């Protein structure tokens, strides 16, 4: 009896062990499993990152397209210190969680630490409780998370002659006396740097570390350099140039060239025997400013003199006896060194020159065929000592370079050869916005050839989607132009323009384009990183600067609609991604911005001031700020920010805040409605109160003054978009907007702020036919007007160029601006009809805005669950349509203008123009009414 009981206990013990180890993922029961999750990512889209920034990572994945699984019912995530996922190595195991969430799942184990490497995997269960296989194992390796992790010092050339902007060459020899298992280089600079090991560049990154508020934070990068090292002597080196830190920003000022360039680097080696060695920047490093790069700046270009080349300067055998010992400085505890939280800018594309426009008197003009951002590469015959000069332009005017719009940016590169013969040169420490390149100084015994010149396209390293096509060539061109404008202005920060002496992160441009950019490219990490700079540059009073990173000597103060990027950018990112973290990170900034706006308002009317509906066409006296009254704009955006804050507070669980902001929104809404409009919703035209304030104090009592308000399209678009008219008044407001459009022959008369609202409002109130008419217009002002005049990007002005008048006389005339490209969002929300019903497109509507003006459209919206794909074609009044609904989502099909609808999936047929669609591929046919 005893032995029988012992046998049963033994059996129960081992059954328990099997159960526990199975739950932990150490032993799995044999069964037919579903296909494993795919597209595993960490944070805002990182895959197997090295130098990661988050001590509590967020995990995301997708269900595979080929899987039978349609929905996720549950998931399990495991994080371990080893790839084997033994019970001993497990750091965090969710066990089985009943949830359909597949993105932004926060790690809840012990916070990860600097340098720590962990491994993670995930599996899921479907609606029938069938389990998938484990995913492929992914890894995360953290960077140096805080200043205390740095043993290195800031180093740089001593500059005895005060040459702060001359590029510096830095090097050190070190010995590794054991077999190497792994090596990491942690590095950053005050300035921009290019690192080398044993004579070879270690990455394709450019303009690193990028641009942040340097007085508060400098981003660091981490490189796996294991394969670059060898046992024995090694050489590490770097070239250091001014970049955004030391170089001028905007026009030349007395503030230029006062901040010395510095490098900090920490090379950590792990030997195979488990010991470590750290090589760091310190007083043992050597430096020189006598290298071939004689000068380099963002705006003015690079000068390279081959006579100063130092062959092998970054190798072991180089003689550096005439180099100087570096100056060194301790780390400033007030400036955080933190891992870069989005991919660095990189050399993304290489374009060939497409035409030699002219050759005259030793000057050749090359056409790249595309307005682009980057640097040229030349391979051409040269004469000893005869400098080759490269000038850049976005356009030609009567065959001559049009450079007025570059203003003080010289945008010129020089190369001086040390011998006759063919030279190869590509600038490393600058970038240009250009389509045309003027080349002079070459050996005129040779005729210029297209092969002499190519262009390297630089931007932050993200993926651009090729996700929209139609049968309309100019519509396709507009989509491409918007993408190229995004490429050109997403070089580490979202800039307004990439060519002139500006290139600043204007907050107003950002907030009108952020949503569109998410449909066009994988830029969530890019925006999340910029928002960190926005938070850092917010004033102690809550003020959000006009551009970020901010330089106070350029301008002061803020502007309504520009500062409102503090609320709008996080909110739009949340709507697209459903990542609550972007709201949590930025909620305090939102609150402080609203407090600032409240301080600068009187009786709920904001008087912050604004750049207005910037560059509205046909404005009175051609004023750049447009005709929409600034207080109307400021108050509308005040209301919008408060409403966003209320919704954000509710989502984050701050119920008291949500209640407070909802009440404030209703008060602003009521005041806005009655202050700016009469009972018939006509704009009040006289006796507007001008609000005066004492400097640094609250607003004083407003003073009435006779101001003639001008009725504009934007004066109705903003309140309609921001829910500032009462429900029963909205149709009347729309009718007044339509009347204004009709007065302008159905042309838009909107600037930066009104234009992105146009497609939203016209579709919302059933006037997509009119939006098509406006969008497809050929005459000024319109998107196709620029295309008809040769645009390959979107312009800053609707009339940047015309055949009759040439280029706009203003010197503020960028041919590469993204603000008006915001219309591309309608390609996806309107034409394809894909609208999110929940943040992140977990549930979405498909309601294409069909038109007789187009025969077919094909496009997709990438989401956290996969790509939503829509194709439609109309032939002789008959609709043929394909819809691909991603796994773990649900679509609401709504085709009000289609009759006799037949929906087919896997030979199963249903009828009707309204249906809920589960994941899968659908074919739809019907008869369309226009």
Distance between the termini: 87 Å
Which structural class best describes the helix and strand composition? alpha+beta
Count of the separate structural domains: 6
Major sheet attributes: 10 strands, mixed
CATH architecture of the largest domain: Alpha/alpha barrel
What average pLDDT do the residues reach?
A: 93
Question: How would you summarize what this structure contains?
Answer:
With 930 residues, the protein is of the alpha+beta class.
Kindly describe this structure:
One of its GO terms (biological process) is carbohydrate metabolic process. Keywords: Hydrolase, Signal. InterPro entries: 6-hairpin_glycosidase_sf, 6hp_glycosidase-like_sf, Alpha_rhamnosid, Bac_rhamnosid6H, Bac_rhamnosid_C, Bac_rhamnosid_N, Ig-like_fold, Rhamnosid_concanavalin. It is built from 15 helices and 53 strands. It has 930 residues and is of the alpha+beta class. It folds into six domains: 1-30; 33-142, Immunoglobulin-like, CATH 2.60.40.10; 147-339, Galactose-binding domain-like (Jelly Rolls, Sandwich), CATH 2.60.120; 345-460, Jelly Rolls (Sandwich), CATH 2.60.120; 468-827, Glycosyltransferase; 832-928, Maltose phosphorylase, domain 3 (Sandwich). The strands form 13 sheets. Strands 20, 21, 25, 26, 27, 28, 31, 32, 33 and 34 form a ten-stranded mixed β-sheet that branches. It has a seven-stranded antiparallel β-sheet with strand order 35-46-47-48-53-50-51. β46 (856-863) and β47 (866-875) form a beta hairpin. It is globular, with a radius of gyration of 30 Å.
